[in-house]
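Input record (Table S2, row 416):
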Amino acid sequence: MMKRSKLATAVALIVAGAAATAGEVEVLHWWTSGGEAKSVGELKKIMQSKGHTWKDFAVAGGGGDAAMTVLKSRVVAGNPPAAAQIKGPAIQEWAREGVLANLDAVAKAEQWDALLPKGVADVMKFKGSYVAAPVNVHRVNWMWANSAVLKKAGVAGAPKTWDEFFAAAEKVKKAGLIPVAHGGQNWQDFTTFESVVLGVGGAKFYQDALVKLDPKALTSPTMTKALETFRKIKGYTDPAAPGRDWNLATAMVIQEKAAFQFMGDWAKGEFTAAGKVPGKDYICAAAPGTGNAYTFNVDSFAMFKLKDASAQKAQADLAAAIMGPAFQEVFNLNKGSIPVRLNMSMDKFDDCAKLSSKDFVATSKTGGLVPSVAHGMAISPAAEGAIKDAVSQFWNDDKITVAQGVQNIAKAATTK
Ligand code: BGC
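Output record (beta-D-glucopyranose complex):
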């Protein structure tokens, strides 16, 4: 009798405990394209399997500018989500506001220090404590090409230099197709621009000009060459590009309307979602002149301080899930990126991801590994915004000369 009631009490306690630990996680992100939505859906599934409730807070708009604006108003109103897609130096800015939660308990239990490249771990920490969890490594300096379009135009494979690229673009144009699929937000212009700077100037120049914002590099003849090359690319885009979302530009390549797109490997998520196979239907190649370099873009979720105990538990579970091997694999298979967690098997990944993984390691040893400025990895959000605007003005207004463009960008780089 006695025994049974003890057991009943124990069971009751366990049930009550489980109920108290199930909580809600509200997650802000901007993953709304086909491939992106599939990827974030995997995180939702994992959280639901742990009994938690997923409250989706998706703010459409590639690159995340709109999401960041909405986030600010929610935090100012004292009502932050549990987690938000925040990356690079912006993590430090949010942490300085005192609004981010300390994730050290989870990080220690899950051994994050041993499972992450040190450079990545440092970005996730504020004053030595984890405040964000990384999900992946995206490579930005890719060029995507449709194999059938290249064949139709008589182009024998992906061009490796800018000269080869323009020769190929000319052939595609003559074949009556669109050489370059491009969209119409400033981050898309800058995604192309930073690949051009990297391809024209090399990794050291990229670091000096776009990361250190060295005025000498920014006003150098190499920068002039980069802007000339950048403008020349525009001549191979279609007139309907302004305002177009990045994934619709990717769709033009997928649907054999356009030959090339310069975009990070979230574009591969779109090819994958459309059932396309790399090496057969499409080609992934480093942007011309950037084969020995790698612009990285690490997505991460910063976690906000919450009051409710069950919400805190759900948040800790979210952090653990993000760094867990199951999520790192399935998410990145869909997203087009590679796991950020070290020592993961790449067996299930395609050739583009395998190349990305190989080049990530190789370039980290040669100095070719550089942060993507277009995707918030390198400089303060204020300077990044100003430079992006200057670059987009140049792209959109042919009346701005190359010399003026150089000056405008150098001036924007002084924004504090
Ligand atoms: C993010 C990617 C996202 C892309 C397009 C980038 O800044 O890092 O995760 O897929 O924007 O929305």
